[in-house]
Automatic annotation (TrEMBL):
SUPFAM superfamilies: (Trans)glycosidases (SSF51445)
Species in which this protein is naturally found: Candidatus Blautia merdavium
Domain Glycosyl hydrolase family 36 N-terminal: 30-284
Keyword Nuclease: no
Phylogenetic lineage: Bacteria, Bacillati, Bacillota, Clostridia, Lachnospirales
Protein name, entry field: Alpha-galactosidase
Pfam families: Glyco_hydro_36C (PF16874), Glyco_hydro_36N (PF16875), Melibiase (PF02065)
Length: 727
């Protein structure tokens, strides 16, 4: 049974294949945390609460209730009653008082998993998962809080979310509503997170957790380039293959808080949810607020096991696209080839050369609409600029199709240019604070997508363009953060709802797009990788990983991204050298090998390639078709990290049945007087025999002794090794 409820002992045990999560009701009132970790056979674990130790529970020692609240392991802690660690819930009532106290009321267990209204969330059938609902109540506020736990037994995953209902007679204000909390004893934990900036997103960083609070956060209106909605606590001995990992990942694309706190009593509190900065939600009587979902993963086999758990879970229970298990078309995007300087003739020249080399889709990037010849105008004017695209979009698309290629288009629906017809007609559609100048970024403002008329107005313009021609792919971009947060349609006591309402508007628009165009391949983007998150994966099977396409920079970016997300979700292209982000020159072969780990495509002017480079494109296209099924569906193993060792990077993809694997190796820096490297492989069956580079090996030999990788002259050299089982 996935969920066991012992009503006599007031204990709930949530079991996956390899883990157990324990909850207990304390004093018939408080929802306490018992345990999360390796699977337990023993159901009698209530002793973990230490109820017989001081200060004891309030029913035994009411005079020290504050001391109890400040050390008890809680499932969903609140503000204002005596727990001075970070809270998960903060309520301000109509009189201005900030306090709440949730008491247990009951529970319900159901097969399957309910959706979260208006939000992306994991999904599962009655056979896949079970859901526990724990009902809590604050009588003073008339507030009901439902804690949701969904247990995916085979996936080794537990998801959490929260519903807050106002069943009282007066409105109250939610000032903080996080989605998950985990209290446990410290074990010299280290914090592992993903950090960066534009063009260097999701670099892995690991640090000791000391006393106090360590948080990762964004209040930019996006999950952000700088910090990522993921947090893991790892034991000091943790490697790719050993040690314990407690991980949380937020299924949300806006502001977030992920935090670990070590208390005075050497306990650790781990939380995740919507960032409270700038957030307030007025909840009227009868209304309900739904918090986004957090995905919890525990691994006692290191980071690699955590990674593969997330990958499989997102492939099986989050991504919905019909392209999920399909080979994506190899595309060529004109952005780095032309920027804004193109017309239909230039696009057709690129398409013609690309089609001859086996590339399957042309994507027309920014600059095709309104009067947009630079990035300072026309966002919102979603009609084709026929001075550039003579004959119109449909004629261009049909000419591209005659070359045997599909056609894709770039859009940025969330933005509006001050210099645009749309802004001149509807200046109030921009997010703004009356009396303050709107902060520009990239010469653009942000549309107020909390308003239905704005969502409808912009969507219909974009949908009309898509309907006007045979468009197979849309790249949805979002190129700036949110500032000067104000909406002319929200009253003063609801302005704090704008960040979240904006995000709900984005989700609504993307859901509508996919419903109207079910065969569309959608790729999300946000100034590169500022919204590469689980929330976006619910709508698009792939996300542009970073605007930095340099193969060496991409090693760290793709390592951090693949820590959580399937490699089939990473938008990765071969671009020209010197690279437009860093000026580095790398071999064309290396650029192709690194991009193979993602969706694969090209970001260059193919008409300017040399004959030798065009021959290499043909070889890379062949490799893509040869290996993509394996890369897309296989298990990912990290062998070495250039970020850590400073010399080389290596990973491999292994077929689920272990019959085939592909080894990637990048020699970033050559070393003088160096021997070949013995690289120990992972994921293979030790009992089977394999063929690699025309040599036979026992699987155990490759796992324990390794395969020999010759040292090469020169930096930035790559190598692919296919490994096949010998029948």
């Amino acid at each position: 049974m996935k969920i066991a409820a012992d009503e006599k002992k007031k204990v709930f045990l949530l079991h996956t294949k390899n883990t157990t999560y324990g909850i207990a009701i304390i004093d018939d009132r408080y929802v306490g945390h018992l345990y999360y970790g390796r699977y337990l056979e023993d159901a009698d674990i209530r002793y973990l609460l230490r109820e017989d130790e001081g200060p004891r529970t309030p029913s035994v020692n009411l005079r020290e209730k504050g001391a109890f609240l400040d050390c008890a392991p809680m499932e969903y802690p609140e503000t204002g009653m005596g727990d001075y660690r970070e809270s998960a819930l903060c309520i301000r009532d109509a009189r201005g008082f900030r306090a709440s106290e949730l008491f247990y009321e009951g529970y319900e267990i159901l097969n399957g998993k309910p959706g979260l209204e208006g939000l992306p969330a994991s999904w599962g059938s009655r056979e896949d998962c079970m859901t526990l609902k724990i009902f809590c109540r604050d009588e003073v506020l008339g507030m009901k809080v439902t804690l949701l736990y969904s247990v995916f037994e085979e996936s080794d995953v537990i998801t959490r979310s929260v519903l807050v209902e106002n069943q009282g007679k007066e409105p109250f204000y939610i000032e903080k509503v996080l989605s998950a909390c985990l209290d446990m004893d410290d074990r010299d934990f280290q914090v592992l997170g993903l950090f960066g900036s534009w063009a260097r997103e999701r670099h892995i960083q690991r640090m000791d957790l000391g006393y106090g609070r360590q948080n990762l956060a964004s209040f930019k209106g996006e999950s952000s380039h700088q910090e990522h909605p993921f947090l893991a606590l790892v034991t000091p001995e943790t490697t790719q293959d050993t040690g314990e990992v407690y991980a949380m990942n937020f299924v949300y694309s806006g502001n977030f808080l992920a935090q670990a706190e070590k208390s005075q009593f050497d306990s650790v509190r781990m939380l995740m949810g919507i960032h409270p900065e700038g957030f307030t939600w007025k909840l009227e009587p009868g209304a309900c607020f739904t918090a986004p979902e957090t995905v919890l993963v525990y691994s006692d086999q290191g980071l690699g096991h955590m990674t593969r758990t997330f990958h499989d879970f997102y492939r099986n229970h989050l991504i919905r696209s019909p392209y999920l298990h399909k080979k994506r078309p190899i595309l060529i995007n004109n952005w780095e080839a032309t920027y804004f300087d193109f017309d239909e003739k230039k696009l057709l020249e690129i398409a013609k050369d690309a089609s001859e080399l086996g590339i399957e889709m042309l994507v027309m990037d920014d600059g095709w609409f309104g009067k947009r010849n630079l990035d300072d105008s026309s966002l919102g004017d979603w009609y084709v600029n026929e001075e550039k695209i003579k004959g119109g979009l449909n004629a261009l698309v049909e000419n591209v199709k005659k070359l045997g290629m599909k056609f894709g288009i770039w859009i940025e629906p969330e933005m509006i240019s001050p210099d645009s017809e749309l802004y001149r007609q509807h200046p109030d559609w921009a997010i703004q604070i009356p009396g303050r100048s709107i902060t520009q970024s990239r010469a653009q403002y942000v549309l107020d997508l909390s308003r239905d008329e704005v969502v409808d107005g912009v969507y219909e313009k974009i949908a009309a363009v898509i309907r006007s021609a045979d468009i197979s792919y849309v790249k949805w971009d979002m190129n700036r953060q949110l500032t000067t947060m104000g909406s002319c349609c929200l009253p003063g006591d609801r302005q704090g709802e704008l960040y979240h309402r904006y995000m709900l508007g984005v989700y609504k628009m993307q859901e509508r797009l996919l419903a109207d165009f079910p065969d569309l391949l959608l790729e999300n983007c946000s100034g590169g990788g500022a919204r590469f998150d689980a929330g976006m994966l619910y709508y698009s099977p792939q996300i542009w990983c970073s605007d930095d396409t340099d193969a060496i920079e991409r090693l760290a970016i793709q390592e951090g991204t693949a820590l959580l997300y399937p490699v089939s979700a990473m938008g990765a292209h071969v671009s020209v050298c010197p690279n437009h982000s860093v000026g580095r020159v790398t071999p064309f072969e290396t650029r192709g090998d690194v991009a193979l780990l993602g969706t694969f495509g090209y970001e260059l002017d193919i008409t300017k390639l040399s004959p030798e480079e065009k021959a290499l494109v043909k070889e890379q296209v062949k490799k893509y078709h040869q290996y993509n099924d394996l890369i897309r569906e296989g298990d990912y193993y990290r062998l070495a990290s250039y970020r850590e060792n400073g010399y080389y990077d290596s990973w491999m993809i292994v077929e689920k049945d272990k019959s085939r694997a592909l080894l990637f190796y990048v020699q970033v820096r050559a070393r003088a007087n160096a021997k070949s490297r013995m690289l120990r492989l992972k994921g293979l069956d030790p009992q089977r025999r394999y063929l690699a580079e025309e040599k036979e090996y026992q699987g155990n030999t490759l796992l324990q002794a390794g395969i020999r990788i010759p040292a090469e002259m020169g930096d930035f050299r790559s190598r692919l090794v296919e490994i096949r089982e010998i029948p």
